[in-house]
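Q: I'm building a small set of examples for a reading group on sequence design. Run inverse folding on the following structure and report the sequence directly after it, with nothing in between.
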């Protein structure tokens, strides 16, 4: 499949070859949802902690006798219902890490790319260059391409001038192609992908590449989706 390739001035200069295995599959919503939950869960630090009644400071004596006072019975000043007492059933440090097969993770990314491409929310640019980091120039560049809303710029390799120019723009983010993920692809309205980024994506997501690495016959996109659904 082919897509229009633009230059930095938003003028079409040719076509870019895209893999049907990456940009032309039927998006698997269930796998994308699972990948999103996994990524958000793995981003949690899990360092939250509360003090129980055995951890807070305070005397261990019984406040007053059990019977005969007319008051509710009390066992400790450190009980959770008393001021300064411990927290009952509070959170403690734990790991939120979730596992997911690599084949399913890659299917989720390919599904997100296909979803954005089918919705005409992806623009392929041969290269982006700025003489120096400047927010004003980045805003002008986005206006030239007439992109409204949140924009994700996918780079093939590091470009300090581009990366530093978006730091003051809360609705724009740069991301290396090797770090493509479902959350970023879904939360931005538009995706600008450089020609070098397309090559990087093809290098590790394309069916032929996986076949060479694994030394086995590559499955079709429909077969891979079926196997991923069985794993889920």
């Amino acid at each position: 499949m082919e897509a229009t390739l633009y230059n930095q001035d938003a003028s079409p200069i040719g076509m870019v070859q895209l893999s049907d295995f990456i940009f032309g599959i039927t998006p698997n919503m269930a796998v994308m949802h699972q990948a999103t939950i996994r990524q958000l869960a793995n981003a949690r630090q899990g360092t939250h902690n509360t003090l129980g009644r055995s951890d807070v400071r305070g005397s261990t004596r019984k406040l007053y006798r059990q019977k005969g006072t007319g008051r509710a019975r009390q066992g400790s000043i450190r009980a959770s219902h008393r001021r300064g007492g411990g927290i009952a059933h509070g959170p403690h440090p734990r790991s939120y890490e979730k596992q997911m097969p690599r084949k399913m993770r890659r299917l989720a990314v390919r599904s997100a790319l296909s979803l954005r491409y089918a919705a005409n929310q992806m623009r392929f640019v041969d290269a982006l260059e700025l003489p120096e980091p400047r927010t004003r120039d980045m805003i002008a560049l986005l206006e030239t391409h007439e992109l409204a809303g949140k924009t994700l710029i996918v780079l093939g390799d590091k470009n300090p001038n581009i990366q530093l120019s978006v730091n003051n723009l809360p609705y724009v983010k740069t991301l290396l192609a090797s770090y493509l993920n479902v959350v970023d692809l879904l939360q931005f309205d538009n995706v600008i992908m450089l020609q070098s980024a397309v090559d990087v994506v093809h290098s590790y997501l394309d069916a032929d590449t996986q076949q060479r690495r694994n030394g086995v016959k590559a499955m079709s996109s429909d077969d891979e989706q079926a196997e991923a659904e069985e794993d889920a």
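The CA atoms of residues 63 and 69 lie 12 Å apart.
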